[in-house]
Design goal:
Two copies of one chain form a homodimer.
Chain A lengths: L11 H16 L6 H8 L3 H7 L3 H26 L3 H17 L5 H7 L6 H27 L9 H22 L2 H14 L5
The first copy, chain A, binds a DNA duplex through helix 3.
DNA sequence: GTCTATAGGCAGATAGAC
DNA sequence: GTCTATCTGCCTATAGAC
């Protein structure tokens, strides 16, 4: 069991998830293998099957953990920052951090190969997007109330647009290896939601 | 050789490209096989290798043809429509048409698995994006001149943002199987570029 | 929990007949 | 140009020893 000060090590299952997560975010789900993970951790493929019976189950566990961590990050943003605008900026910064790690959003990658995913993974990808949009919609409503965000369209539609704008910015920026590209998209997004004085 | 009235048939190489193109746009490059294409066309895998020696060469031919057709569509838009705004709307409609065919932009899909692509394909994906951005930048400049488009940031950055916004809208809309989702993103994009009266 | 060994399938690819 | 036949390699997955 994990104890305090356990940051670097973790159990085998966690280390498998860490390795597989990075591989999915950089190469895609169908472009990494048990052999890749096993080699990276210095164990055998058979051991992986002990912790995760099949690739589908591993994939489910990957999204579940990713979504939980993301949700926790959103909770921290809500707790730490006072205005809707500051929260939105922190939200965009979450995505920028992923890109700085030379990764794509996990669910963005999975969306590209959505048709080939096991059913359970498909459902989890959509759930992740839904959760993001729910949080953003609530944020936008708060932004109208505290007068730190301005927008003209419906709340839900605007929330959807924020999500897909950031996903698209990551998707296209990565082939260029250009973080400034993402920053440009982020700047325009925030500018479009700024209250006119 | 292709002759007039040859719309439905085409040579074998063209039919291979048609089949592979649809498969890439729906499943991704690494998620389709020579066996898939062969089965769809009722020929053998060996025949495919006669026309395209390897999957890398087939991939290159796919992007080349896709980019050429896209470029022709852009030329038609320039020729047929008078204002920059009308051209931008037609551009967004190109993407909507792809999504209506239950496909994703080919280069958007390939961007998600960029790290695993052969070098020649990688270069072609970036070239496709560059070509789109070049056309959009020229469009935006024309839009300032004819006063049908308005934007505050730099031309090149705005062009990049239009591209990644549409790519992101397609990427996220497809798992939902929801065309209205894309339309929402398109509407917001165009609204953000509208001249204030 | 981790290992060795191996099964069974599908991938991309080639040789050579027709 | 298209075929049959085959190769090699990697994939996911399992059985069973330790």
């Amino acid at each position: 069991m994990a104890v305090a000060g356990d940051k670097t090590q973790g159990g085998t299952a966690e280390r498998i998830l860490d390795s597989a997560e990075r591989l999915v975010q950089t190469r895609g789900f169908s472009n990494f293998s048990y052999a890749d993970v096993a080699a990276e951790l210095g164990i055998t493929k058979a051991s992986l099957h002990y912790h995760f019976p099949g690739k589908a189950e591993l994939g489910e566990a990957l999204i579940t953990r990713y979504a939980e961590r993301f949700s926790e990050a959103l909770d921290r943003i809500d707790h730490d920052l006072p205005t809707a605008r500051a929260r939105l900026e922190a939200y965009a910064e979450l995505y920028a951090g992923v890109l700085r790690g030379e990764r794509m959003c996990m669910c963005g990658v999975l969306a590209a190969e959505y048709e080939t995913l096991p059913g359970a993974m498909r459902a989890e990808v959509v759930r992740f997007f839904d959760e993001n949009q729910r949080w953003l919609a609530q944020l936008l409503t708060a932004g109208q109330a505290d007068n730190t965000l301005s927008f003209t369209g419906p709340v839900d539609e605007t929330a959807q647009n924020i999500l897909s704008t950031l996903e698209g910015a990551m998707l296209v920026a990565r082939p260029y290896g250009d973080l400034a590209r993402f920053d440009g998209a982020r700047r325009a997004l925030l500018a479009g939601l700024t209250v006119t004085r």
